[in-house]
Amino acid sequence: MTDQDTPPAASPFFSIDAVVQALQGAGYYADRRLATAVFLALKLQRPLLLEGEPGVGKTELAKALSTALSRELLRLQCYDGLEQREALYEWNYAAQLLHMRAAEAQGISTDVESEVYQPRYLIRRPLLQALQAPAPGAVLLIDEVDRADEPFEAFLLEYLGEYQVSIPELGTIRALVPPVTILTSNRTRELNDAVKRRCLYHWLDYPERERELAIVRAQVPQASALLSEQIANFVGRLRSTPFASAFQRGPGIAESVEWAKALVALDTLELDPEIVVDTAGILFKQRDDVAALTHAMATDLLKPEEEASS
């Protein structure tokens, strides 16, 4: 397929505000900077690299985009030792062998070896599925790309730069419809500059209080207005100075929502130090962090900010 054969996939959103509204309709509350990055990624047909702390909503953005765009979501979960065949394709060796044996049994003298390297014997993995997805195309999530190794990053360059891949037996395969591609990284290591140059970049930070409150209210409507506000305030202060220095990692949005669900399950109407300490294992996943959230700290965090600072 040539460049001219690849149909353009125009962005369905005519403005940044339209992106905000569409994502909100899918249950994702994006601030304007993030919505701008998404709008440009769609408009320019470029991959979007999201970096940020775990739990700030990087993966959820891809899911929400899939819903908002009515596109299939394909996910490539990266890990140390991920191989190309697990990301792109592999041959169905069992089916190929059966074909060759059947040809031999029938005495067929044609070039059997070339016959077995046909698309019908391909097992398609997420990258190839994304390139061959019919209109309107797919959303491809390359999740936690920082967990893969540098050779795998180099392998991704052709896809990220040109929306195509090369298969030795079949040649170059270009996208039927350019996939919307989201890469996420928790920055466990620095990514190669070549990968970053092929992507638009956005650092996704913890949300402001009002956005986090909106997320909690949307995801956990059973929580009372008072409880939702207390959760947003409490978690926001946990991440701020001087409290943040007591923990290895502050809770993300995912933990805030999960905490709200747990508190509702416990019939909690209002936060108090006892319930905070008892449920600290939902906010934190490290033993030292759970231990650091003491009764005294919880009491201090629950005070009105004016009172706590005086």
From TrEMBL:
Domain of life, source organism: Bacteria
InterPro entries linked: AAA+_ATPase, ATPase_dyneun-rel_AAA, CbbQ/NirQ/NorQ/GpvN, P-loop_NTPase
CDD domains reported in the protein's UniProt record: AAA
Alphabetized Pfam families for the sequence: AAA_5
AAA+ ATPase domain location: 44-205
SUPFAM superfamilies: P-loop containing nucleoside triphosphate hydrolases
Protein name in the entry: MoxR family ATPase
Native organism: Variovorax ureilyticus
